[in-house]
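Figure caption, in words: inputs first, then the predicted bound structure.
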Amino acid sequence: MTRTDWTRGEISDLFELPFGELMLRAAKVHRAHHAPGEVQLCTLLSIKTGGCPEDCGYCSQSATANSGLKAEKLMDVDAVLAAAAEAKAAGSQRFCMGAAWREPKDRDMGAVCAMVAGVKAMGLETCMTLGILTGDQARELKAAGLDYYNHNIDTSPEHYGDIITTRTFQERLDTLAEVRGAGMAVCCGGIVGMGETRSDRIGFLHALATLPRHPESVPINALVPIRGTVLGNLLADTPLARIDDIEFVRTVAVARIAMPRSMVRLSAGRESMSEAAQALCFLAGANSIFTGDKLLTTANAGEGQDAALLAKLGMVPMQAEEPMRKSSPDRGGGSGTLTEGALSAAWAPSTTPLRVAVPLPVPGRNE
Ligand code: SAM
Ligand code: DTB
Ligand code: SF4
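Bound structure (S-adenosylmethionine present):
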């Protein structure tokens, strides 16, 4: 039985463990629920960039930021599908589409649903992050074939108001409830390295681990300090500009122990992390990454770099099913088939064990 009754004290005690003990416990939990040598590959695309009315202090896309980003219109469906096809060819398993909106307008729902349906038809898992949703919008997205909705709580309830003033923590929870009510899987996490205290990191993971059902995906972002944003201006060129690697790994390990069956995704900030720090994150139970050379507006380690790192570590793209979705009758998308081209190009360097030398159907994922 997965626990959702964690106390703050218990989460705090995990953070306080000697590092070696914490790592061992996290690795043990990871192995009990996941294939430890596998990593899920996701690609991000910003389908509507900039000009967002929210004032999130970390974000280059807020209209209140001075990041020099040009606001753009919603992309055409065909251009989104072309990007998804490229991501699939590069070996990605899930395609995540993000829009810089407070909430989608009803007039945009047709195009957004067409994007979901088109991406899903390619055999990719679909994820979107569009801001606040009504119940009707959540059900429309679900009907179009959306597997996951990403909506982050970002930080502890106590710290939330210091980072964002245009919406409340409770509004985040309300949208998450609408997403669940519509039958979609939840992707929900946050950002560390925003100058918060450890107590905030404890509060952040406690809030996630005590949701009525754990998110199927938990993205852990390390702040990318962007000039022109409130936090970028405040933290850039200070010792706080990058979270300490060991504290980041601890956060990943505690997330793994507190939410044993969730996918834990290394998200923003990986580009500035050493290979050794990323390897520790995988040991601590991270098992999903964003690949491709761009996140939404910032750079990411590209596929080549990731392929080299995973080869070095003897890790392969995820083949097993996500533990939290095994029982789901309509779990979404991914064909589980890695194309030969993508494999030889990116994922089968000579040091990789030849576990996946030909397109490999994953049992139960092709129906
Ligand atoms: N507008 C939608 C929303 O906020 O729900 C979706 C897009 S938003 C960019 C998605 C998430 O990206 C945010 O919740 C935040 O956790 C993360 N993010 C944004 N800017 C970031 C940055 N500079 N560093 C790290 N993570 C960031
Ligand atoms: C998430 O938690 N991280 C991703 C995804 N969900 C949408 C976004 C990261 C954005 C990093 C900053 C940027 O590229 O603008
Ligand atoms: Fe808008 Fe999302 Fe950026 Fe906040 S994080 S400013 S809601 S795009």
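Residues 8-347 form a domain with the TIM Barrel fold (CATH 3.20.20.70).
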